[in-house]
Amino acid sequence: MLVAVTWVFQGPMALAMFLFGLAAGKSRLLEEPERWARLLPRVQWIGFGVGLPGAVLFALTAAGDGPWQLVGLAVTDLTSPLLGAAYVATLLRLVRRFPAAGRALAPAWRVAASNYIGQSVLACLVFTGYGLALAGTLSPLAVMGVALVIYTVLLWLSALWLRAHRYGPVEYLLRRLTTWS
Predict the structure, then answer these.
(1) Measured distance CA(29)–CA(47) in Å, rounded
(2) Contact criterion met (CB below 8 Å) for 55 and 79
(3) Packing angle of the helix pair 99-110, 67-97 (nearest 10 deg)
């Protein structure tokens, strides 16, 4: 049953997050964070204040079975967008304060779709039977380390790729499919 509920919630949630990302792009949120500087602390307070308790509830109920697992899933589906917004607000404030960090991270942002696919492929190769089959064998801290290594490798590859190309490979394909150019 959890799988069915997950599909029912995840599809619309993914579309909503895509549309929020599109709105953020149109408002030039990442390009002109100073326009939003006064709003960012409020987003952090609300996002962390509502999102973190939702994430904790989900973490406490996810391993169980039954109605509390569904309650935890429903709560995290409602609160995780606020937590995500708080993460983005925090990142924007850090980049505003430390511009060199923004310049270092910019290549990954410019080819975000390619990095998303790249992270999925690399994580599958590390954690599933197609690759190293490490799922369930690593501690949470080790999993975070693997994620950091994957992100660092893709950040380096993104910078390398952008020296020779204007768009990432997935961005190029999406551009071709949507504009036929």
Answers:
(1) 17
(2) yes
(3) 120
CA distance 86 to 45: 8
What is the reported pTM?
A: 0.75
C-alpha distances (whole Å) from 139 to each of 149, 157, 179 are 15, 27, 45
CB contact at 8 A, 44 and 52: no
What is the residue extent of each domain of the chain?
1-97, 100-181
* Tens digit of each residue's pLDDT, the chain (181 residues): 666 766 776 778 788 888 888 888 788 877 777 788 899 999 999 999 999 999 999 999 988 788 888 888 889 889 999 999 999 999 989 988 999 998 999 999 899 999 999 999 999 999 999 999 999 999 989 999 999 999 999 999 999 999 999 999 999 998 888 887 6
